[in-house]
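S.,

As promised, the uridine 5'-triphosphate run. Input:
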Amino acid sequence: MIKKCLFPAAGYGTRFLPATKSMPKEMLPIVNKPLIEFAVEEAQAAGISQMAIVTGRGKRALEDHFDISYELEHQIQNTEKEKYLVDIRRLIDECTFIYTRQVEMKGLGHAILTGQSMIGDEPFAVALADDLCINQGGDPVLAQMVKLYNQFRCSIVAVQEVPRDQTHKYGVIAGEELRDDLFRVSTMVEKPKPEDAPSNLAIIGRYILTPDIFDILKNTPPGKGGEIQITDALQQQAKDGCVIAYKFKGQRFDCGSAEGYVEATNYCFEHIYKAL
Ligand code: UTP
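Predicted complex:
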């Protein structure tokens, strides 16, 4: 059973400055809903109710978002605007939220290691809120991955095919094809140049990790960009055949970039917001 989801949300979000100067990137709205709320909803739809968020300085808005706002709620009670708070109230009622701060931003791997005290010794999901994943009419991506975890009982990474000239933005995998959408990973390279990429299958911001990853991360030296990379730690698990890469069903928008953010906004306005 996967009961907890970790949300690394401590990054500086420099690509969205000045918007992210005093506001967390994860609070950027896609129309009227912040990225972090989409990610928490996705985790909940996968049967997860314990949300563990790794925050940092200037990220307090994340905690306030998953809390009651008495004055505001009283103000709009019994008006037609109440409907806008239904989704977030449901999350607050049905999930628990815990937080810890990453004091130094030493990379995604380090952020995940910072979450160890909230996760303990059990397998867990990881969702990067700036990757917005939508699978309308089907299982959300984390739910698809939890099903696979129950089958394979090892770490699962979500991958998608990217153009060769984009591999330098991702961790890229190679492995044995088990099914047209499943690979047993043998190699992972962080942000390779196109000529060094072992494939065009790029890891996106959804993972299921087994808890041995924490000990591996403790012994993982800084890699690309001087940061502790989750890809380097996963490479250790892959050596033992313990990482499955999954070509998920659905769409993923890279909301850490302006292009992806605009695409996500247009998509959600047409397909989700207008249907409200
Ligand atoms: P990014 O590589 O997108 O970095 O991190 P960033 O700082 O958020 O954004 P840019 O590149 O400066 O614009 C991927 C994810 O890992 C988290 C981020 O919050 C984001 O969800 N992260 C990254 C941490 O939590 N801590 C870190 O030290 C680094």
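The mean pLDDT is 95. The longest helix spans residues 258-271.

- D.
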